[in-house]
Design brief:
Rossmann fold; alpha/beta; 36% helix
Length: 512
């Protein structure tokens, strides 16, 4: 059952709101009229909050759109989580408040803003829904993000910003295009808004029981068919039906999701929508991920001073309590220890990997079965295997800088960022040819002297072992290996390339 409206949900009680004497609803009017007005709707965005790749994308793409296209106005709206309200209270400005009707609820909706570079961010404030220790994982996540979706559309007139395109991301914002085509279809000022829905990971679709359609999601049974799939509510399905374009975070993933093996049940819907599906590869923040300036690594270097990478390797071996040896190749993984990351293959291949002249480092956490497997290998091979359960951003940077080889054998990978970051730091990627891994890592060709990593297609333990052996044979040739590392570090993984592709997609949608 949905929770009852609390007092804190219907009145502006945020500690941040109390620092502002009066709302300033006209602050957003200072922006000059732009040819293209884009509003990103998402559940997270760096630098404010990011739990994974989604947050990094929403933090990086908008600012790079300004680089690719000067005559554009890009803004972002996300929930005002407790962590944001605390960490960024000095830059948050209270614009005003309104109310959002969600079924029988009449909920307070505060509007905050902050500007980072060229990008204006809006934050939806409601302590009842968002003053929590985490972004996700609550029994009422459906209601929380239904409120967010309605709030995104409700605040547009208040902030004096009617976008040409609303670009919604993943299931948490999937209901925005659904509401736009159903509950808000009567509003003349919204009739020309186009919508794009980006799938970052199709595994998480926003599924809920049908009886809460009207009560929790405030969607009339008149529109039941829009979101119904397999007898339940599926918000991602609804977004796919209602959006003008469906995009994914890599071209290969856009093709793969037509296949039932990748679509997690949505392939019938996807195959109905083929004409509006696009795939654009994500980039990485090359300023942040830059071994030449990264303060978290032991010694800075670039593609012209690769020899300094050796010091990072020795220091990494030291802190991981491995024998110090700058000649032995270090293989690293920074990943969630779950099956779709290919961890079952790695566990199956470990008995062969430990026979190789390598050291093996794992950073991550996940299924306890896999954690125990790696801990067992660490105990059996203390001079070869090290495991750090959990995640440390600083240690991750040091592993990228100190590793020679980065293993990423995912069963499926919509885009993936780690393989790009690894290449940027000169850790040669070894990846399975799927999704963004296939699109981002050009296979090494010794005869043509091209490529930046090693790839395999079969999802087998043998595929990992054979590819690692091939990689090690090149590693033994220091001249070829140095050329390979330099080429990987110089590869263009910047958002600039991706941003231009998004601009083309926006222009296509707007008929420009």
């Amino acid at each position: 059952m949905p929770a009852k409206t609390s007092k804190s949900a219907s009145t502006p009680t945020s500690s941040t709101t109390q620092t502002k004497a009066r709302p300033k609803p006209t602050a957003a009017k200072k922006i000059k009229k732009a040819a293209k007005k884009i509003l990103f709707a998402a559940s997270e965005a760096a630098p404010f909050i990011a739990t994974g790749g989604l947050g990094e994308v929403i933090g990086a793409l908008p600012k790079n759109l300004y680089t690719a296209e000067k005559n554009i106005d890009v803004r972002v709206v996300i929930p005002l989580y407790e962590e944001i309200a605390v960490k960024f209270k000095d830059i948050l400005e209270f614009l005003g408040m309104t109310y959002v009707d969600l079924g029988w609820r009449h909920q307070y909706c505060g509007i905050f803003t902050a500007k980072v570079g060229d990008v204006i961010y809006y934050f939806i404030d409601n302590e009842y829904y968002f003053k929590r220790t985490s972004c996700y994982g609550y029994f009422d996540d459906g209601e929380r993000f239904a409120f967010f979706g309605k709030a995104v559309l409700t605040i547009l007139e208040a902030i004096d910003f009617i976008p040409d395109i609303i670009h919604a991301h993943d299931w948490q914002a999937a209901i925005v295009p659904v509401y736009l085509k159903t509950s808000y279809s009567y509003k003349d000022e919204f009739k020309n808004i186009k919508t794009i829905f980006t799938v970052h990971n199709i595994e998480y679709q926003g599924k809920f029981n049908m009886p809460v359609l009207e009560d929790v999601f405030d969607i009339s049974y008149e529109y039941k068919s829009v979101v119904e799939f397999d007898g339940i509510i599926n918000l991602m399905k609804g977004a796919m039906m209602c959006s003008d374009i469906i995009s994914t975070v890599s071209p290969t993933y856009a093709k793969e999701i037509h296949d039932f093996r990748f679509a997690h049940g949505l392939d019938p819907i996807i195959n109905m929508q083929t004409g509006k599906i696009r795939g654009i590869l994500n980039g990485i923040d090359t300023e942040s991920y830059n071994p030449q300036t990264d303060a978290k690594i032991f010694k800075n270097y670039d593609s012209e001073s690769i020899e300094n990478k050796a010091e990072n390797k020795l220091q990494l071996q030291t802190i991981m309590d491995l024998p110090k040896n700058d000649q032995i190749p270090v293989i690293a993984m920074i990943t969630r220890l779950v099956k779709h990351k290919g961890i079952d293959l790695v566990v199956g291949a470990m008995n062969e990997i430990v026979k190789m002249p390598v050291q093996f480092i794992v950073l991550g956490s996940g299924d306890r079965e896999y954690e125990l497997n790696f801990e067992l290998f660490r105990e059996r091979f203390p001079d070869k295997v090290r495991v750090h359960l959990g995640f440390s951003p600083e240690l991750a940077r040091r592993i990228y800088a100190g590793a020679d080889i980065f293993l990423m054998p995912s069963q499926f990978e919509p885009c993936g960022l780690s393989q790009m970051i690894a290449a940027r730091y000169g850790a040669v990627p070894v990846v399975r040819e799927t999704g963004g891994l296939k699109d981002s890592i050009m296979p090494y060709d010794e005869e043509k002297n091209e490529g930046i990593g090693f790839t395999f297609s079969d999802y087998t333990c043998e595929g990992i072992v054979e590819t690692l052996n091939k990689t090690l044979s090149v590693y033994d040739n220091k001249e070829k290996w140095t050329e390979l590392v330099k080429r990987a570090m110089q590869w263009d993984f910047s958002w600039e390339v991706s941003a231009k592709e998004y601009i083309k997609m926006y222009d296509e949608l707007l008929g420009k």
